[in-house]
Structure formats: structure tokens, C-alpha cells
Design a protein that fits this description.
Layout lengths: L1 H20 L3 H16 L1 H8 L2 H9 L3 H20 L1 H8 L13 H10 L2
Length: 117
Amino acid sequence: MTRYFLVLVAIMFLSIQAAAVASTPSHAASASCKAQLAAAGSVNFATRYKTTGACVSRMSRLTATQRQALLRAEKTCRAGQVANATAFVAKYGTTKSGKTGSQENAFGKCVSSIASA
């Protein structure tokens, strides 16, 4: 578990550097999406963006600072999800009708709340 976390942190660090070095908005957006995929995992990434193209489209409209804030939020949420999945779903997994325990978009709600704070 510790190895997995360290590898994930190393990937994130390298991905952030790649995003910062990228010269055009589309290259930076692509690098950011790859970093997000690594940070969030394929299931969470697919829930949030549906396709890689949708991610690149959205990221190309953000500034570098906004992209890095989003990546930081995703890393924080992923760590919380891995640490205690039950508590994570209890905190972020509420539906519009107020029912708790829904996993539908708990990860996206977590990222949105942290990135906008």
C-alpha cells in the first residue's frame, strides 16, 4: 500500500512538471488529463469526464493554475478514498434527494468541493 502511494506521488510530481513544461494549451491540457487519470484511477476519471477528449477540451479552457488546483484536489480525494472508502462515500456520496451512501459521483463531488474552496 505504501509502495502504491509512493509510486502515485512520483507519477503526480512528474506529470505536474510535464504540464508546466508543455508549450501550448492543448499539450498542457493533455498532460493534465494524463496526470488526472493516474491520480483518480480509470473508474473515477471515466465517471468525471466520460472520454479523454472531454477532459482535454475542458482542461484547455483552464489556466495552468486552475489545472494544478484541480489535480491537487483529485490527489487529495483519491487519498481520502483509498484511506477510508466508507467514510469517503458517507461524506461525499449524497444524492440530490439527500440519501447518503451513493457512490454515483462521490469522487466528482469531492474534487469540486476542494477545487472550489
